[in-house]
Design goal:
Blueprint (H helix, E strand, L loop, with lengths): L10 E4 L1 H19 L4 E7 L3 H8 L6 E11 L8 E8 L7 E9 L3 H11 L5 E10 L11 E6 L3 E3 L15 E4 L1 H8 L8 E2 L12
Helix pairs in contact: 1-2
Length: about 210
């Protein structure tokens, strides 16, 4: 039985106002780096939908939107931790400027696989943007081109990110601790909200 909250839970890492300011910074960086060229945004479902909705309203010039879905899978016939990409909702990318938008950069394996696939489809340039980057979690040799916030290695929800299908609707980003996760799985409410400041750095494009 999934718990459905009646109130705001958890430790708040980023308020709605802080997220909005971060999206403003990201949009300005994308505009400056793009030079006014038409842009194809590829949203990584499902977590990035809120980020993309807010981002595209801050951008200028012609914008196309495509979607991809990435899922990790395990099974006797697959490598544990493997990745399956669903790319049937993409427009033609030949010769286009492409920006992949995801909610969070964790191990980096999803983004690395996706960038390789999109570059193989003839895009002129493929760059990436993430709202959040977990510190010390990368397992690949790439980094996103645009990063909104660096955060600690915590399980986070809200602003499109979910736990067990819930919490995407929160206007802020909050962290679940192990006690919260155990409570939710048992059908109990997590503890009350508290704003916990964290060290974070607004990302800019890599030089």
């Amino acid at each position: 039985m999934k718990f459905r909250p009646a109130r705001t839970p958890m430790h708040v890492l980023l308020t709605a106002a802080e997220i909005g300011a971060g999206i403003d910074r990201l949009a300005a960086a994308v505009r400056d780096a793009g030079g006014g060229r038409p842009l194809t945004i590829v949203a990584v479902l499902t977590g990035s939908i809120v980020v993309v909705a807010d981002l595209i309203r801050r951008l200028e010039g012609p914008i196309r939107l495509g979607m991809v879905w990435a899922s990790s899978y395990r099974g006797a016939a697959t490598t544990p931790g493997g990745l399956e990409l669903h790319l049937d909702q993409l427009p033609d990318l030949t010769g286009h400027e492409v920006l992949v938008v995801d909610d969070i950069f964790d191990s980096g394996r999803t983004l690395q696989a996706l960038l390789g696939e999109l570059r193989g489809r003839g895009a002129d340039r493929v760059r990436s943007l993430v709202l959040l980057r977990k510190r010390g979690r990368a397992e690949v040799g790439i980094e996103p081109d645009f990063v909104g916030f660096d955060i600690p290695d915590l399980f986070v929800v809200g602003y499109g990110l979910d736990f067990d299908g819930g919490w995407r609707h929160l206007p802020h980003i909050a962290a679940l601790d192990p006690e919260d996760i155990a409570a939710i799985r048992a059908g109990r409410p997590p503890h009350d909200a508290a704003h916990v400041p964290t060290t974070r750095v607004a990302g800019l494009p890599r030089p």
